[in-house]
Amino acid sequence: MADYRIEAVRNGFRDWTARNDRGAEVRIGAAEDPDVQPSFTPVELLLAALGGCGGLVTDRTARTVEHEGLRIVVESVSRPEDDGRVGAVRVSYELELPEGDMRADDAFARGVRLTHEKYCTVSRTVEHGARIEARLPDGTLVFMAG
Prior knowledge:
The chain is an alpha+beta fold.
């Protein structure tokens, strides 16, 4: 498994750009701030990562089933008692499988299950959690959890 590095750079007040080492970038901002649109919020990026990882892995785990028209919708559901966290995430795989083809139904269901049980790093990290460390410029650890 690869390690990853993303750099988030401040463009202005509540306006950030995240970049990877391959030159891709995405704008991050507050949804309610019209001055930073179009952009993704951090939670939207988490949901996008779940959908993207699910899609990339499903291409491999469900390769025996034609899934060119696959659409993955990822939604978060939070309640006040979730205390600033996403309470639940729903990942919906939308695809018209051949009617009456139980083999395709079973293969696709198995592929989706394996995606989340075994192969999608993002899904498995969200499910099991990860250690988070926050460090200051001098290297001082000011927060750690997980």
